[in-house]
Amino acid sequence: MSAGSIEELRRALAGSPLTAMAHARLGTALLEAGEGCEAERHLRAAIELDPGCVAAWVNLGGILLSRWEFEASVEANRRAAAADPALALPHFNQAIGHLHLGEPEKAVECLGKVVEIEPRNGAAYHHLGIALHALGQAPEARLCLAYAEELGYRPSRPSAEALQRAAAAAKADETSTRHSQASPSTSAQGEAHGGNAQGR
């Protein structure tokens, strides 16, 4: 948004009764212009005037996410989703916060809502794949990732790296589980015959 548009929004805010929507519009414009601190003040002013102001909650959640305040971001987006459950963005942003907090089950729940609302949201399927990998559900994760690619989604570098980490962790867990599930009698048998049970 141009500086002129921001100034117009400032004048409109100064020349009329204070409304949540006026603060939310100015806060959103400031956020788009890279003025996060001032944007946050206006978004919080909008919420003060109207606790159900979806635009203010979503954009505040984005600011908090960018500062790695994941719990606060999840809560802001939860409030936005409660105010407008049919809007996909707050559910998606909640999921991203949950992934950063190491809560893949909650991320799956939020992303499930996103794909109900927007069945062709490639980003949601990609992040659903990350969350499912984190839960050790590799076949389901691969399906989601293939569908995201089919929809034309191209992950950012951090998102692709997150997927690689989740897949590697899931594979390591799977390998560890296989080794720990070897029956005690089999291990003992290998030792009794002078062999190494793990080497078989």
Structural write-up:
This protein is 76% helix and 0% strand. With 200 residues, it is mainly alpha-helical. The chain has a domain at 87-170: Serine Threonine Protein Phosphatase 5, Tetratricopeptide repeat. Helix 1 packs antiparallel against helix 2, helix 3 (36-49) packs antiparallel against helix 4 (54-66) and helix 4 (54-66) runs antiparallel to helix 5. The longest helix has 24 residues, at 157-180. The chain is elongated and about 65 Å long. The chain starts with a helix and ends in an 8-residue tail after the last helix.
Separate helix tally = 11
Q: Give me the CATH fold name of the domain at 87-170.
A: Serine Threonine Protein Phosphatase 5, Tetratricopeptide repeat
The CATH architecture category of the domain at 87-170 equals Alpha Horseshoe
Taken in chain order, the helices and strands follow as HHHHHHHHHHH
Shape: elongated
List keywords for this structure.
about 200 residues, mainly alpha, about 0% strand, elongated
Brief description of this entry?
It contains eleven helices and no strands.
Reconstruct the topology from this structure:
Blueprint: H1 3-14, H2 20-32, H3 36-49, H4 54-66, H5 70-83, H6 88-100, H7 104-117, H8 122-134, H9 138-150, H10 157-180, H11 184-192
Helix pairs in contact: 1-2, 2-3, 2-4, 3-4, 4-5, 4-6, 5-6, 6-7, 7-8, 8-9, 8-10
